[in-house]
């Protein structure tokens, strides 16, 4: 019995350990994008809007189909003297019960072209919703790219900070040995200990920035930020060559060409055009209020004091109904004014989107140019800082430089490494910004 209980505990522990390991996931960039496209809240909301627009176009098509109604009823009416009468096809029948059945179908033949305009409006709104969904997906892709790059950049910074801390520990051990040997004074040891503490603080700050970057990315993916999740770091390049810069420049072209391509490619601009067409159709719908309407109807009705005699008492009918509006208290005029206002608003919205696109493209190109310059400058600065650190370190070991010179040279070298990494990942992020602004992000 004890062996069985111990075996069960071992199985339970193994299961819990496996479950904990299974919760730990390492996502690459492609997986992050796929998850975000399925779970991002903005996409989910926009998909619901597309679904609603699909129901709208179904309803608009239904206006071309006949409507069918069926109703049946039962009544029990009593007069003051305890008697009740029922009018059955013009004949008064004494009864306490009354049954009726009515089935009718009607079809709109002409309504001032309102049906046609409404169907066209629904199609344009559906197309606009679909394009907005595509644009939202593009924005989510761009955000995932940008935040994933931010995770990789911060992970590299944590690595540099940790390496710098380990190098500082080794340097402190060497200085302590020199102090014990009487080569350097105690203040050199204190200075290096203080420097090592500063480096440890920098590790904590870098790790915090890394965790924040991961949290932001998980939120964009639509996942809870408290999951034990990590990301692959080798999917983003850490080096940009001049050939890479020239190739990407050839893709984007000049600013005027980039703006032209953005207007042609951006789905939010196309969606705004669709909404303008929908607003024009809404004006046609409103103007139909001045037009006559012709309906055809047919049906069958039955009324009796007991269930039966359906064929004898049932009556079929068919007819046409023409309604001509003469005066509707200016209701149609108000509907037209509202529709024209909506058209004006959509046209202004399109102009705003066009301006925002042009501004976004120009800002993205400027950021790209700045990132290109930063790569070249940071590369030169890193080479100089590395040489200076090597020379100063050698001089410090031989007593020809003080601890302040060594600390300054090390700080310059670390900052140059950070600037180089930041410049590379800023450039990659600027590439994605340009691709999103132009509408060519894949």
Structure description:
The protein has 442 residues and is of the alpha+beta class. It has one domain: Outer membrane efflux proteins (OEP) (Up-down Bundle). The chain has 11 helices and 8 strands. It is elongated.
Summarize the helices and strands and which ones pair or pack.
Blueprint: H1 2-23, E1 25-27, H2 29-39, H3 41-62, E2 67-75, E3 85-88, E4 91-94, E5 98-110, H4 114-180, H5 186-221, E6 229-231, H6 242-252, H7 255-265, H8 267-287, E7 293-304, H9 310-313, E8 315-323, H10 331-397, H11 403-438
Parallel strand pairs: 1-6
Antiparallel strand pairs: 2-5, 3-4, 5-7, 7-8
Helix pairs in contact: 2-4, 2-5, 3-4, 4-5, 4-8, 4-11, 7-10, 8-10, 10-11
Write a short abstract of this structure.
The chain is α+β, with helices and mostly antiparallel strands and 442 residues long. Helices cover 70% and strands 13% of the residues.
Order of SSEs? HEHHEEEEHHEHHHEHEHH
Please name the CATH topology.
Outer membrane efflux proteins (OEP)
Which second-level CATH architecture applies? Up-down Bundle
Largest β sheet strand count, sense and barrel closure: 4 strands, antiparallel
Q: Which word captures the global form?
A: elongated
Find the count of extended strands (DSSP E, 2+ residues).
Answer: 8
């Amino acid at each position: 019995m004890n062996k069985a209980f111990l075996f069960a505990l071992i199985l339970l522990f193994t299961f819990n350990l496996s479950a904990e390991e299974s919760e730990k996931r390492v996502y690459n960039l492609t997986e992050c994008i796929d998850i975000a496209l399925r779970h991002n809240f903005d996409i989910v909301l926009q998909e619901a809007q597309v679904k609603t627009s699909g129901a709208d176009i179904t309803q608009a098509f239904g206006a071309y189909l006949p409507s069918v109604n069926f109703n049946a009823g039962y009544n029990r009416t009593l007069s003051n003297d305890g008697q009740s009468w029922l009018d059955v096809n013009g004949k008064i029948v004494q009864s306490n019960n009354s049954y009726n059945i009515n089935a009718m179908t009607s079809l709109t033949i002409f309504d001032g072209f309102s049906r046609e305009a409404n169907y066209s409006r629904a199609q344009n709104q559906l197309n606009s919703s679909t394009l907005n969904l595509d644009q939202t997906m593009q924005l989510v892709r761009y955000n995932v790219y940008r935040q994933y790059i931010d995770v990789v950049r911060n992970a590299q910074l944590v690595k540099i900070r940790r390496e710098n801390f380990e190098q500082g520990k080794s340097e402190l051990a060497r200085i302590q040995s020199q102090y014990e040997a009487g080569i350097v004074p105690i203040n050199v040891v204190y200075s290096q200990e203080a420097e090592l503490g500063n480096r440890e603080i920098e590790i904590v700050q870098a790790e915090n920035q890394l965790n924040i970057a991961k949290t932001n990315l998980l939120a964009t993916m639509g996942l809870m930020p408290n999951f034990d999740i990590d990301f692959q770091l080798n999917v983003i390049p850490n080096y940009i060559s001049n050939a890479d810069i020239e190739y990407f420049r050839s893709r984007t072209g000049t600013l005027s060409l980039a703006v032209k391509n953005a207007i042609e490619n951006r789905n939010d601009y196309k969606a705004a055009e669709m909404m303008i067409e929908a607003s024009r159709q809404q004006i046609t719908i409103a103007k139909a209020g001045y037009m006559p309407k012709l309906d055809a109807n047919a049906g069958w009705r039955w009324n009796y004091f007991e269930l039966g005699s359906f064929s004898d008492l049932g009556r079929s009918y068919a007819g046409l109904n023409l309604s001509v509006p003469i005066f509707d208290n200016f209701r149609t005029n108000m509907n037209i004014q509202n529709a024209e206002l909506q058209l004006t608003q959509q046209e202004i919205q399109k102009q705003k989107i066009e301006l925002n696109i042009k501004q976004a493209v120009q800002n993205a190109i400027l950021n790209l140019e700045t990132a290109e310059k930063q790569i070249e400058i940071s590369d030169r600065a890193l080479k100089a800082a590395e040489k200076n650190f090597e020379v100063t370190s050698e001089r410090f070991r031989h007593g020809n430089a003080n601890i302040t010179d060594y600390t300054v040279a090390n700080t310059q070298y670390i900052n140059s490494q950070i600037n180089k990494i930041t410049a590379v990942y800023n450039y990659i992020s600027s590439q994605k910004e340009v691709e999103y602004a132009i509408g060519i992000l894949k």
